Amino acid sequence: MTSNGISEDGEAKGAFDAARGIRVGTPTVVLLPDLGAENARDAGARLDEAVGLSAAIALDVVHSEIVKVRSPRPATLFGTGQVERIAATVAAAEAQLVVIDGAVSPIQQRNLEKELKAKVIDRTGLILEIFGERAQTSEGALQVELAHLNYQASRLVRSWTHLERQRGGFGFLGGPGETQIETDRRLIRDRIAKLRRELEDVRRTRGLHRARRQRAPFPVVALVGYTNAGKSTLFNRLTGASVMAENLLFATLDPTMRSIRLPGFDKVILSDTVGFISELPTQLVAAFRATLEEVLEADVIVHVRDVAHPDSDAQHGDVSRVLRDLGATDTPEAAPLIEALNKVDLLLKDQRESTLEQAARADDAVAISALTGEGLDELQELISATLQRSARVYEYDLGPEEGARVAWLYEHGDVVSRRDEEGRTHLRVRMSEEARARFERRPA
Ligand code: GTP
């Protein structure tokens, strides 16, 4: 093992785990640096989210607070007095880990670790921990590891001069200090290259699976939403399945799919996706493409919103932005989007009435409670109606010589009815506009 926990053989199964080094139940202090910038979010709610994220990986949060930072100090982020006070809190609570819900530079991290006598991680580090813990598909796990190594590598590179000096400045002579860091960097680089190759393989296989599924004539409905919005609860309600639903963030990281019946549809695939969060580091958006890509194939996207959350609007903005960046909305091919205004059971009378009115006015929104079941019939009707609008039923009368075309329609469409008469086949098929166009371009 080298200083970064990367084993020499490059296989490094344990490397990633060792580098994470955070254990269940670690006594943890959570700090939210409030930089006073125009942040649309309420600082209290942001702190709650950070505590929730920490609890999601079973850290034992013993203290949490908002720390006002007037001008961030390059060396320690917080002011000298603040650092002393925090150190006393950490000592009194016997905390071993300090989570800082913001960006912390490698230098600040190192200095703070020294002053606070505890391990320090920032928001990206925390999210990486969560993603690392919850990623279950092989692609998810590989992508998280890749993101984590890239994060580590950037810290190693940036702290290069600092470490070099610390090791006596022999770096340029090829001294032992340099060799050590070079080894770490090379191992990380090799591991990253290997992961990239593995990812390519996994992607190729997944592409094949998807091609197969795409041919299945079932519409796909994807649930998206901010973390803790209630996607899993809704998914369970609609499917009758008991997919893990708990008051844990990121209970659903990997795509979960089930088939359900909806009015007018015998079979619809419902897919639950990873929860979104604000300030998701860009490397991580890539790390979760496997899940998010499901959204690109959906025929209808249902955006589940927690309307009882104080930052509901900001969360809505975040989810919408990510969906747009992915190309899942605002493009000609984009699937229609429905909003499920969830948790109405938690609203006070006035808020509740205005939410119900808002939903009644919009033709693409429904007020629901995934918990009590309120509004779910209406939601299912709206999904059906939207699906029906986006895929229409076409009628064909095919001759005995057109067996291949009949087979094509079975493969690419949803055959609603069939009548065989005097050798001719009369089919009514529900298909997307795109499938219809392809069918009609085929030679007779
Ligand atoms: P991630 O997996 O983090 O993305 O969360 P999620 O969107 O799947 O949320 P989940 O279904 O796990 O619900 C989060 C919490 O909200 C749980 O404690 C649910 O019981 C609760 N919840 C979900 N829907 C409702 C609702 O309609 N009303 C109330 N009161 N609570 C709800």
Folded structure, characterized:
- The protein is of the alpha/beta class and 444 residues long.
- The chain folds into 3 domains: 20-131, GTPase HflX, N-terminal domain (Rossmann fold, 3-Layer(aba) Sandwich); 218-389, P-loop containing nucleotide triphosphate hydrolases (Rossmann fold, 3-Layer(aba) Sandwich), CATH 3.40.50; 392-441, no CATH class.
- It contains 16 helices and 13 strands.
- The chain has helices at 13-20, 43-56, 80-92, 106-116, 123-134, 138-158, 160-166, 176-215, 231-239, 282-287, 289-296, 312-326, 349-361, 376-390, 403-412, 433-441, and strands spanning 27-34, 60-68, 97-100, 119-122, 220-225, 256-262, 265-272, 300-306, 337-342, 365-367, 391-398, 414-421, 424-432.
- Mean pLDDT is 78; it is low at 1-20, 157-178, 211-216 and 242-255.
- Guanosine-5'-triphosphate binds next to helix 9.
Question: What's the structural blueprint in terms of helices and strands?
Answer:
Blueprint: H1 13-20, E1 27-34, H2 43-56, E2 60-68, H3 80-92, E3 97-100, H4 106-116, E4 119-122, H5 123-134, H6 138-158, H7 160-166, H8 176-215, E5 220-225, H9 231-239, E6 256-262, E7 265-272, H10 282-287, H11 289-296, E8 300-306, H12 312-326, E9 337-342, H13 349-361, E10 365-367, H14 376-390, E11 391-398, H15 403-412, E12 414-421, E13 424-432, H16 433-441
Parallel strand pairs: 1-2, 1-3, 3-4, 5-7, 5-8, 8-9, 9-10
Antiparallel strand pairs: 6-7, 11-13, 12-13
Helix pairs in contact: 2-5, 5-6, 6-8
Bound molecules: guanosine-5'-triphosphate.
